[in-house]
Every structure is written in C-alpha cells, then in structure tokens.
Amino acid sequence: MNKKLLLLLVPLLLSTGKSYAETADSHEFDMPEVVVTATKTVMNIQDVPAAVEVITAEDIQSYGAHILKDVIGSAAGVSIMRANGREALSIRGFDARYSMILIDGKRIPAEPDPYYELDRISLENVERIEIVRGPVTSLYGADALGGVVNIITKTASKETFTLRLNQGVLSRTGDRNGRYSFTYDSGKQEKFGMTLSGSYSDSDASLKSNGTTYSPFGERKNMNARFEYSPTDKETLTFTASRMEEDTREYAILQTAMGNVRTDVRDNNDRSQYALSYTKDLSDGELYFNAYRSVWDKYNDTVNRTSGQYINSVYGYTTISGLEARISKKVSDDHLLTLGGEYRPELFRGTGIQTGQGTFTKVFHGKVYEGSEVKTNYSAVYLQDQWTVSPKLLAVASARYDDSNKFESNVSPKIGVTYTPEPGWRVKFNAGQGFRVPSPNQLYLKLNVTRNGNLVSLLGNPSLKPEDSTSYDLSVERDVGNVKSKLTFFTSKITDMIDEAWVDSATVKYQNINRATIQGIEGEISVPLSDRLSWSGNYTYLDATNDLTNTRLYNRARHKLSSRVSYRQSETLTANLWVDSYLHYWFQPAANISTNTSYTLWNMNVEKQLTKNQTLLLGIDNIFNHKDDALSLPGAFIHVDLTMKL
Description:
This protein is mainly beta. Helices cover 7% and strands 64% of the residues. The protein contains eight helices and 35 strands. A hairpin with a 6-residue loop joins strand 11 and strand 12 (192-203). The longest helix has 12 residues, at 3-14. The chain is globular.
C-alpha cells in the first residue's frame, strides 16, 4: 500500500480541530444511536465492532433519492460497479454476489444475473438503511462475505398521505424519466398501525453511438404494505407484503455466423414477497419468529429489430420460503447470548438452466423450449455472545453452522472487539472465516445476457468449487465533539473465488480463481463547519488481486473518493453538493480487451419548502455531463421533484 498516502490520512482523520466541533448542530450531525443488523440485537453504533454506516430517512430526502442506486454509492467502502453496462453494488471490493441485500432482515429473490437490484428497490417508505461492511457470514450465511445492506421500512407513527412527482431529462438527448410515488401512514390506532406505499416509473430509451441502450428502459411498478398489531406493549405482530412488476427493454447486438444482428431484448419480471413476524420484548432480551415467502417470475423475449422475428425466449421461476427463530437473553450482567436458527428451501426453475431434474417444456411463439429445476434446502443454526469484558472492552463472538442437501456442511466463526481507552477514542478489530457454495445459476445456467450492449451467452460451470475466505479489519475511531473520523485497514484472502471469465467474444462462463486477495484502507470524516454548513467525506484504497497471476481483479477502482457539502440557509431552503470519484477503474468491456479509466461524477440539488405541505427540489446528476458508452454513463440528468403532504 502507498505509505505516503497513509501518512496523509492519519492526521486528516484523527486530528480534527475542536473549533469545528463546538459549532455543531446536534440534531443535524449526530449519528443514530442504535443499529440492529450487525449483531441482530439493538446496539449503540459506537459499541459495534463491525464497520456500520446508517443512511437515514433525512439522508434519503437530501439526496432526492427514489431508488437504492440514488443514495448508496456515496457510502464509505461502497462502490457502484459499472461492469457489463449495469450499475451493481460492491462492498470492500466484493461484487454484488457477495453483498446481501435485505428488506427488514429478509432475503429477496434476485436475477440469475445480479446486476439489476439497485434500480429495483424503491425507497418510498424507508426509515433507514444499515450497511455492514465486511463478512457477516457468522449470522447471515454464505452470501454475506462482502457485507450486508438492510433496508428497514417505517412503522406507523402519524397519519399522513404524501404524494411525490418527479420528472427528469438527459441533457444531451432529452430522453425522459418520470417517477410518481405515494406513501400513507395510518398513525397508531390503539393497537393497530398500517403503512402503504407505491411507485410507478417510466423511462425512454437512451441510445449509445452504436444504437444499443445505456440501460433498460420501460415501466416499473412497486407496491408495499405493512400492518402491525400490538396485543400488549411488549408484543408486536407484523405482516408485510410487496409486489414489483417490471416491463423493460434493451437494445443489444447479437453476434452470429452471418454477422451482427440488432436485437430488442424484452424483459418482464414479477416479484412478490410476504412475511409474518412476531416480536416479544423480554425483561432481559427479545424473542423473534419470522416466516416469509418470495416469488420471482420472469419471461424474456429476444427479437430481431430488423425483421421482427423472435430469436429466443426464456422462462424463469424462483421461490424462497424461509423460517427463522431467535432468542436473545442476558445470562449474566456481562453476557448477552443470541441463539437462532433458519430453514430455507429454494426452488430455481427455468428454461435457462440445465440440471436434468424436474424437466419440462414450454412453447413460445411456436418454438419448444426445454427447462429443468434445482431444489435446495438450506438450514442453519447460529450462536452469538456479547461479552462486556470491562467498562472499556466489549467482545462479540459468533459462529454459524450451515448445511444443505446439495453441499457439505460448514462452520463460519467470527470475533469482534471494541476497546475504548478514553471517551472519544475507539479501537475495533474483527476476524472471521467464511464459506460460500456455488449458487444454482453459477452451476447450471445457460442464458443470454446483455454485456455492454452485446448479447452474450452466460454459462454455469458444474465443476465449480466452494469458496473459502479469511478476513480481518482494524479500525481507529476518533470523535471530537460532533466531528467524527475513522480509519480502517481490511484484508480478505479468498480461495477458489468464483468470477466470470470471457471464453470468447460471445460467451462468458463462471470459473474459480485459485487464490485472491482483497485488501485496502477506508477513511471517513464528517465535520460541521458552522450551524448551517457541514462537510463529510470518505476514501477507499483497494488492492484486489488474482494471486496466481498477480493481476488485478476486474470491475474495481484502485481509489474511490466521495465528498459531500450540505448547506441549510433556513428551515425552508437547503442545498447539497456531492461528488463520487473513481480512479484507475479496471474493467473488461469485451473479450480480450482490458481498460483502465478514471471518472468523476458531480451532483447537486436545491430544496425549497414552498408551503407547510409542499416542497420543491431541483437537481442535476453528473453536472459536467461526463459521457462514457463503455461504462454506460449517458451524461447529465436534470430532474425536478415535487412533494406534497395531503
């Protein structure tokens, strides 16, 4: 690592001046006191050994965010991977396959190709987003090697109905993107409460110079409902339901023996989720039960744009049915134990997988397609001990045993320590091991997907080995009044890491990387410059390497810098300016082509409260109109947002 850079970061992050601290507005700059995702228990964020960041509802509003993509990319240690013409989540250099996204602690069914979710998850009724960086496999299982993003929705509090209207255009082309949403909060009605939210978005096609699209365009609808019943002041029964309907298209190029064919890829996706949970506060802990079911239904057509003929059709169907129970209980003044278990059967069925099991046929447009399925039953039990060793030292030890009917069982342990030598100083250390089995699509998939405007074949690999990882991180946190800073060193050693590799110009296949190392530095700081002005910034240095070939892993930036300035002129007028800079982004747009590039995106908005119940926001994303077809950056996007409370 760059020692000069490290020497510059240490004084910047840990020696912040007291003069700034004394000007802070505590309501504006204090971080939320408690989080739940890192340990599945309520903990003060300063005590949690793991690296945790909270994006509040106020943050979501200040960014003018509608979907997860709008707000998460500026978080510390989090990057937006622009691989394959998509925007996907990456935490500490681990791609979207290793970064678990939860809604109220529950899994969501996702595409076989993981580069879609940031555009799909709406934020209309979100209370906060908790991001845990680093492996959390000891509690959540194999898909959390990189970290966890938990989207926590609002509970009923005060009766309100909010309508939000948003219209935006790309400055280069005038292509339009509109989004309309509502939220309803019933308020607490004795023992009952309800929240409802929904959104509709519609976007035009925006074309690259070769006639392909920057991103999918079309319609997307979301509906969400949450019902709560509290028979006593210590018990809560919660039912949640959500549905997403998506009808999108992409223009892509298909390579054939007769030459390139311009195609229209038409994608229809329906996703439904239902969950019923029960929570009881105990005198010295908590009891929790949860049952949920998620269904993802997909249909896809590929059409020749010139002749109108159907080239290919795909059917897919995925279900996740889960049961989870846990109890947290203080067994002494110094120990809080959490014991939990999970059972999760999953079905993956479609014409794009080849397992030889549960075979079936589908007929689309006069052509017969063969399909198959894979059923996997996952089970797990986990145990965690939060041990207050002394007033200055907290240790959190956890381990999870995972088993399934398809793969060998495994134990994932982790230990975290927080040491507070004196008020305002914290030293945190984490060490853990993870194990991840190949997903069904990585083993059996045979599907056409879009990669940077090209339609290519993505193939599974039945010979894939499970992945093993060992991770460590060490952090120092320093608070001076309301000035907060943090410096973190992290490293992960991965054996048999699963990644995509180009076989030829029209084929991508999953493979194992024998040995890989992902390590780096994270720096974070937030400073209230005055009672009206605040600044925050974070920096990540990332070294992600294939140890066997001593080459960089693709789709990662060496340096990522985010910075934000917020100004509040009055209670009715605010402005935000933020920037995300990616330096030495190493990616592979096509077979046998490797590119190292850098780019910076500046964004701003101004929000004015027109009346007590009406707010207007004007924003510009990508102010300086940076355009890059290979990274699917179409240029500046200007948008207006009107919020009305009725």
